[in-house]
Amino acid sequence: QVQLVESGGGLVQTGGSLRLSCAASGRTFSNYAMGWFRQAPGKEREFVAAISLSGSSTSYADSAKGRFTISRDNAKNTVYLQMNSLLPEDTAVYHCAAARGSYRNKYDYWGRGTQVTVSS
Predict the structure, then answer these.
(1) Distance CA 51, CA 33 (A)
(2) Distance of alpha carbon 81 from alpha carbon 23, whole angstroms
(3) Phi, psi dihedral angles at 94 (to 5 degrees)
(4) 90 — phi, psi (to 5°)?
(5) Neighbours of 50 (CB within 10 A)
(6) φ, ψ for residue 71 (rounded to 5)?
(7) Is 79 helix (H, G, I), strand (E, B) or coil?
(8) What is the rounded CA–CA span in Å between residue 59 and residue 49?
(9) How does strand 114-119 pair with strand 10-13?
């Protein structure tokens, strides 16, 4: 089992920044690729960004490219999502998730999420 706990969400104005964190516990963190997903009210969950085991490879949704940066610190068992130039359409609950091996694999473990609200 891998337990994931997100933090860092909040209310921010358009153009502002937030840094989300996801702390992992349980299994060996470096064995898991990590991803960030989000779900807005009335919408399906969507992929935001993912990072490989070592952090050498990343993937972003088109909506996140150039504005968001995913990173990880395996010594701290934590993955981050730096979000800049935030827009009202970024408002959602953000979840981190863990996939064994590659971020193209199925995500088996999910956190409960942290709310991000961007005001216009």
Answers:
(1) 6
(2) 12
(3) -105, 130
(4) -85, -5
(5) 23
(6) -150, 165
(7) strand
(8) 5
(9) parallel
CA-nearest of 84, 108, 86, 89 to 32 is 108
Kindly report the number of other CB atoms within 10 A of residue 27's CB atom.
14
Identity at 107, one-letter amino acid code:
Y
pLDDT tens digits, 38-83? 999 999 999 999 999 999 999 999 999 999 999 999 999 999 999 9
Q: pLDDT digits over 99-119, tens only?
A: 998 989 999 999 999 999 999
The size of the chain, in residues, is 120
Six-digit token string for 43: 């919408």
Q: Which amino acid is at 60?
A: Y
> Cα(7)–Cα(91) distance, rounded to whole angstroms?
15
Please tell me the distance from the alpha carbon of residue 113 to that of residue 99, in angstroms, as a whole number. Answer: 17
CB atoms within 10 A of CB 83: 27
